[in-house]
Amino acid sequence: MDRLVPGHWTWDEKVFILVFLLNLLVALLYLLTGALIVSPIRTRKERKAGAEVLHDNRRTYLLRFLVMVPCPVVGPLFFFFSYLLFRLPLWMQPHLEDVVFSKERVRSHLRADEERGRNMLPLEEAMFINEKRDLRLVMMNTIRGDVHAALGVIALALNSEDSETAHYAASVLTSELDAFRSKTRKLRVRIEEEAGEETEAEEELILYMDSFLKQNLFTGQELRKLAAVLDTAAQSLYDKNPAHMTQELYESVCLRLMDAKELAAAEKWCLRLARHHPDCLASYTCRLKLYFAMKNRDAFFDTLAALKQSNVVIDRDTLELIKVFS
Questions:
Q1: Lowest mean pLDDT among 19-23, 136-140, 288-292
Q2: Exposed, middle or buried, 199 (CB in 10 Å: 0-12/13-18/19+)?
Q3: Which of 121-125, 182-186, 243-247 has the lowest mean pLDDT?
């Protein structure tokens, strides 16, 4: 009974009680701060940004509290040093002087799917053979792959004699083209809402439309309408900041306008490409294709002569073109 009176406690017991109370206070403050302040703030912030909630939730703080209370000093120190070890790499400044970021240095080696590869052949060949089993197998393998890059080939399957294959192709094309039209409308709205010299929506729209239009999925009036949308987006980008019009963007606009037979608009962009990027191969090849389509013989051979006299590195296709017309 004497031990229950504070005056009869030994020194060790007093120290233990003091440490236990301090530990309980620290654990309680940790629980209240984490569960009532830190966790709700991070949750609102991550949900507002549309990101997945990855931080510690209230249950995590409660479990740590239940560990720290029966483990005075050791429990809080364990979680404290664990937090330090976790955050230390983020606080350290990395030395990147000798690091070179280059996609050309990255090579991904994936194990070949030999069983699937033995049963695959180009979709065009399967349609020519017209074996239903092979055609359906190739169509399903194509759909499971990169559908976006294979829409032009999938469109060929619409004329297949096999109704099931044609149905697969129609379903995929309908879904992808609906998504294309929807995203195009959203990007056009973003362009109208942009302020100042913002050009991200224009650049994204040009590249996105190019990836679809170059697969020859549209014809007639719809193709000309989409070409006009592309021309308008490129003009908006050019008016805001011509420096953001790279040679790749120029080439995409020129070729897609030529595909739509909008030769006058294509000539405008070809001349701009030649003026702003005179030392790139695309500035010559786009004009060669344009003047060939316009049947402008003099301009075609003048451009070809200028290409031969320039220091531009040519590719194999352009070399064959020079051999044919020289």
A1: 136-140
A2: buried
A3: 121-125
Q: At 116, is the pLDDT very low, low, confident or very high (cuts 50, 70, 90)?
A: very low
138: number of Cβ within 10 Å: 24
Contact call for residues 216 and 152 (beta carbons, < 8 A) = yes
State yes or no: pLDDT of 204 exceeds 60.
yes
3-class DSSP state for residue 120?
A: coil
User: H helices within the chain, ranges in order?
Assistant: 11-33, 39-48, 58-68, 74-91, 114-118, 123-129, 132-144, 151-156, 163-193, 200-213, 220-240, 247-259, 263-276, 281-294, 297-309, 316-325
Q: Is the pLDDT of residue 240 over 60?
A: yes
Contact 217, 248 (CB under 8 A): no
Cα separation, 68 vs 74, in Å, equals 8
Average pLDDT in the 146-164 region? 63
Do 58 and 35 meet the contact criterion of CB atoms below 8 Å apart?
yes
* Nearest one of 65, 81, 56 to 25, comparing CA atoms: 65
Half-sphere exposure of 113 (CA within 13 A, CB side): 5
Where does residue 142 rank: exposed (0-12), middle (13-18), buried (19+ CB within 10 A)? buried
Residues 276 and 304 sit within 8 Å (Cβ to Cβ): no
Buried b (16+ CB within 10 A) or exposed e, 40-62: eeeeeeeeeeeeeeeeeeeeebe
